Amino acid sequence: MSALAEAHDETVDLQALYERTEIGKILEALDRDLVGLVPVKTRIREIAALLLIESARRDLGLQAEPPSLHMCFTGNPGTGKTTVGKRIAELLHQLGYIRRNHVVSVTRDDLVGQYIGHTAPKTKEVLKKAMGGVLFIDEAYYLYRPENERDYGQEAIEILLQVMEERRDDLVVVLAGYKDRMDTFFRSNPGMASRIAHHVDFPDYDAQELFAIAGLMLERMHYQLDDGAAAALCEYIERRMQQPRFSNARSIRNAIDRARLRQANRLFAARAAPLDRAALSTLAASDIRASRVFLQ
Amino acid sequence: MKITQGQFSFLPDLTDAEIRLQVQYALDNGWALAVEHTDDPHPRNSYWSMWGNPMFDLRDAAGVMMELDACRREHGLSYIRVMAFDSRKGWESIRMSFVVNRPADEPGFELVRTEGEGRSVHYTLRSYATSRPSGARY
Fold this sequence. Notes:
The complex is a heterodimer. By secondary structure, chain A is of the alpha/beta class. Chain A has 15 helices and seven strands. In chain A, helix 8 links the parallel strand 3 (134-137) and strand 4. Chain A is globular and about 70 Å long. In chain B, 20% of the residues lie in helices and 29% in strands. In chain B, 30% of the residues are buried.
């Protein structure tokens, strides 16, 4: 039998590969830790499947260019872009697409210099640090300032593009930013738009999802809500969503931090009585209802 | 004459894959990497020109290899070495240094004798390459 015919008979055990790479566990953790975000999770699942099939193909000697995995995350503030960015590195590392499980998170300041000749070394230094892992550029639209044609941001973008193209196996670039401003950014940098294979939109959370997120945050900080507090938090979320400058999960985190502050104050004021574990870890309705959100 | 300076210099020249492994070893130990080049092969020439700044906080050898490739494009006919600097207290010095690029043709050294008083002789080494000006040596 010729070697080629033999190769046709080979099979690959996807299930074994799936178990070995522990993707199931990562995806499960993703489902558990991130509330909502259905389109994001779907895309991550697709990428995981693609990489799994890719490594199965490699086992059988079917060579192909590694897929380009540069991504763009768009969405309103507090929708979890940065959190998912960190998880992506873990996932891609587990799937063997990137060599190191690390994220270098930067903004315009870290890439763009202040005088002529400063930008290129600065951008390159950041790129070198990110090599082997994920480069996460937050608020990426700031890189391009259309009002100033001599802005050095353009230079940073060009170096970025070059490395994204040439060093595709060494680096995954993730851009993040608000939807409308990223759209403007891509319109003026078509090269960037075409080099990014995955545009993922992060939807806003609804009230139930925000409540679930609050539950997760409290659990992680070892706090609990008493019955009144849970109802108060529900109401708080409804009201806060109607108000200006609402930034999804970030607003919730801030609300919880302020509730903790009030709880500490309340306990401190009544410091004569001994405190037990439950008292130290319970947020009462009054801690939440004291918020200025309820005044309006 | 193949000059032997730094680590691995009595071995055959390292391949890129081997260089990458050595660099990764240094990075895994938390050392900073630097790329330097020169066209003066004299063993006492310890001040080589820096290719960019030393690279701190890297995690993967790819970044160093990128700089090395860039340096080779510019100074392919010179000696290039990679050095690893250990900043930890008590070391604060170079932990690794090895040549990664050398000119195709290395003319070697001449033994120069200088006759002194009372028929005493002083010896010194002079590289044949350095008889030409810097930049036109190889």
